[in-house]
Amino acid sequence: MTAATHSTLFPQVPETADAVLDGLDPEQREVALALTGPVCVLAGAGTGKTRAITHRIAYGVRSGRLQPASVLAVTFTNRAAGEMRGRLRQLGAGGVQARTFHSAALRQLQFFWPKAVGGDLPRLLERKIQLVADAAARCRIRLDRNELRDVTGEIEWAKVTQTVPADYPAVVAKSHRDAPRDPAEISQIYAMYEQLKRDRSVIDFEDVLLLTVGILQDRHDIADQIRSQYQHFVVDEYQDVSPLQQRLLDLWLGDRDNLCVVGDASQTIYSFTGATPDHLLNFRTRHPGATVVKLVRDYRSTPQVVHLANGLLSQARGRAAEHRLELVSQRGPGPDPVYTEYADEPTEAEGTARRIRDLIAAGVPAGEIAVLYRINAQSEVYEQALADAGVPYQLRGAERFFERQEVREAGVALRGAARAGGNDSLLDDAEDLPAQVRAVLSTKGWTPQPPAGSGAVRDRWESLAALVRLAEDFARARSGATLSDLVAELDERAAAQHAPTVQGVTLASLHSAKGLEWDAVFLVGLTEGMMPITYAKTDEQIEEERRLLYVGVTRARLHLTLSWALSRSPGGRASRRPSRFLKGLRPGSGSLGTVASGASGSFERGALAGRRKPRGPVLCRVCGTTLTEAGAMKLMRCEDCPSDMDEALYERLRDWRADQARELGQPAYCVFTDKTLMAIAERVPGSGGELSSISGVGARKLDRFGADVLAICAGEDRGTGLDED
Length: 725
Known about the structure:
alpha/beta; 6-stranded parallel sheet
């Protein structure tokens, strides 16, 4: 037996059934021993729920009380199902079926379709969006690409909530749901979509569940055959079950009650997809004799992070809040959460990137750090700030800002308008650059007021609105700038961020961070209107936003930073307010009578938190104008002021940077950005002090690359170091 067999990568299989129970805490052990009847496990974030249920299944199999083939464990993602299967194999319980709801249903449907219906199962649609487009066209309803995505999402929601086309308008009205189009139109498209599926002999993913439910309801012989095979069920993330999935689960069970469910109502954040915690909250009502076990020992986060998470939920209202779990950290003490107030969004991003760089220098791996935000449109400023700081990053659950379809389309439209110049009638009434951009982007879906509700249309609008704001900032920073100048700026920004995906800091929305964890988490943009999001109107929607923030907080193991900006852009009016969810939690925010935990952590305020003095105005070294745009501040001059850059030196620096990036296995921007190289080539520093005064050349990069850069600036071969002043 090799030493590797004993490593954490190759854990030894427990020798006996009792050995499976070793290392479980008392509550996890109680879960593992509860092998019969209904069992409800209320498991808080970081409490080892997957460990508890996999050890439960493994103990049942190893003790001979459960047959592997008779157990069906279902969850919601292929990743979670794969992880569960892997853990079961390590515990000596191979052969147990661990699948998603759709995967389990599809397997059954494929097997029983010839017997129940006859012939082959209709072809499964991988993507339903084209068929929805065809249905809309048949109804003579015109949908753009983003409306098409939203209507497709509405059809999916209607099907998982078991709403038929004719009932859709009434159900939407009753549930106060924001429909992306007139509900009558969606009902019409939905009905035509179903007709086209029948005509073309295809089914979608929701049909997999619906058809399986239909067969099990109508064919008792088939239902009995499935029930004879699967006699014990485990459902993970039970708070996310839809009405349709619950109906399928009921049919699998029949009149039996060997069901174990695991969930946390405080982590219900997907109600827009049809998920509801009602089945979890009603479990004890439906199963009066159920064994209920609460897992509250948090093994993930420090007491400081757990204290904040508990305080956040203590302010919650509604039914889910009545069943909240008070977590108890099992880790040693760590640093207090840091609350940071910034003057504006670019400064918030810059400050966040600087803190991340400091954490990496202190030994925290970049892959163990995450920046989490409410909507994907917030990513661009953090992509830019991390690139400027030389920190590698990766986006999760979203394309890079400049790779998004709507941003690419906007770039094409702006480029065309710039080429047309005065010949474009669209720009006739546009008095300045921002007005020109607004006019062009209005043809792509931008409007002065955001669309109601959430979804793809709102996401598209947010991306276009970010471009409008960038144009406004650009025009303020460069008086007399043209549309062509803005297009060039956009191209340069896109090029600077067009690096291969690397292992680095994770940028992700709060929704896509569910189920993940990092050593250090930065929760950014925590202002009213963003957290809670502006279109959260009802009490239920507000409470789901609070739960979303709770999910973000509980992703952190050790370091947690919460930040917000008082204005959008430098010099803007400081009219924003920190999120209401932080009241009574952050120092100096007052306290609420319902907040038993009290405020803790450190609070920082300033232009750049962590600096002792706020940053003063940055002046152009050519004309003396105050600079506000990040690229201009890096160059220390207005973009349209004359440049005295040494072109040959710039090219030598670029060649050197390419070699360094290859050796380090990182994108070129992680060495120095193009703007930093331009600034170096303009100022030609002769000493370490002069080089360090250039934005983008911090102490770490000075130590690492300073000798090479100074040698190149002096005309020597790169790699020949110079003494610093």
